[in-house]
Structures are given as C-alpha cells and as structure tokens.
Amino acid sequence: MENLRLQVWKGRRRRVKLLGRLFLIGGSASLIAGYFIAYLGLELLAGVMIPLGAFFAFAGNEPYMKSSLAGQSVVSTMQVLQEALRVNSDGGHAVFVPKSDSNRKVLMFIPTDDSQRGSTNGVGTKGHYYPPLGHELFTTYLREIGGKTEKELLPLLEQLRAVMTSGLELVEDVKFEVNESVIDVHIRNTTFAEIGKHPELVKGVYARAGCPVTNSIAEWICYGMNARVEWLDAQIDPITRGATVKLSLSGGIKK
CA torsion, points 204, 178, 165, 222, in degrees to nearest 10? Predict the structure, then answer.
C-alpha cells in the first residue's frame, strides 16, 4: 500500500506540473495572438490561463492534492495501533531495537510505562513488541538507495533527507538537528494536517510512537546506526502542516 501510494503521489505531481506548463504556454500564446489581432476574448482567456498555469507549476499545490489519500491511510494505521496499546495497557514511549542474530529487522518496543524502558532485553521489562508503523516506507528508502546506508549519523541523516524530499518526494521538507545523543526532527507534510484533526491520536499514539512517516525515520536511524533509538516526544501543528520529533540515540543495545 505504501509503495502504491508513493507511485500515485509522484504521478500526480508530474501531471499537475505538466498541466501548469500547458496553461502557461496556452495563456502566453493567447496573449500574443490577442495583442496582434486586437481580440479581447483571447486576452481574457490569457488572463485566466496564465495565473492558473503559474499556480499549478510553481505554487507547490500538489501536496494538497495528495493529502486526502495519504491522510486516511495514515490515520487508520494509527488507530489500529491505538487499539492494540489500549488492549495491552502499554502507555510508554516507543523504543526501537536494532536487528540481531535472532531477529533480522528492527523492532518497536512500547513499555507499560516509561520507567520500564531502561532495558529492552525482555528480562524484567513490561511491555510489548510491535511492528514499526513505517516499516514499508523504511524498506522503500532502502530500495531507493540500493540497500546501502551510511555508517555515521550525520551522513545517514543527510542520505534520508535526500531520499524523502528529492528521491521519493514524500515530504515537503525535513531537517535534522543533532545535540550529543538527542536528534530533533523538523518535518512538513500535508498528512500532519489530517492527523491533527484527531487529537486523541496525537496524544495517544503520535506523541509516543509517531505516524508511519516519522516512525520510519526512527527505524532508519536505528537500522543505520545499529543502535537503540528512544522516542522522547513529538508534536504536530496542523495549521502549518508541520511536526517535530525528539529522539535519543544510544549505542549498541540489542534485543
């Protein structure tokens, strides 16, 4: 589903920009023709087509066109996790555990409360393991770069930023700030406007484990650095379609 959604997004983006260019060309041609033959109708047509063409080609409105499909998919996924957390009585923040010999993929552990997440080796720790929300996006990132991730944190983050913004056109913008072991993520995507309509999800799921997009970022860091990543906090501003995520990176702790 994630792969299909990405293809839809990229296809719509190309078609919207092509439509904008056609409007600009047609409007310019109408303006020139109207000037030489002094026909007001062509000039009026140009007055409509040129602004529309500029809007479609340059205003970046394609995120609005793709937000509905993405938002519905993301919200429904988060609602499933919300129900699972309720049934299991898990109220802590997520911990991403790197792959090991016994498990060949990153796991997401959510404890009953945050006092339980100091150790995620399964001994004396209350909580449950869940599939990462953004795992399908994460595997798409890997395919986009040919399966080879950077081994140092800053190049790894820059690699992900390029994949998300340029390669897959998944987000409008994403920035990373690193302060010792804490990683702050600032990201903008139309999906956050849709998530923001569900305050119970923002408080109950997003603040503790994120959405598929932000969750995939934590999984990427955990996988690339082969280290445990703790989810500290996350917030959404539905008006600006922006979100922030605060993660903590610790070294070499495996399940």
Answer: -60
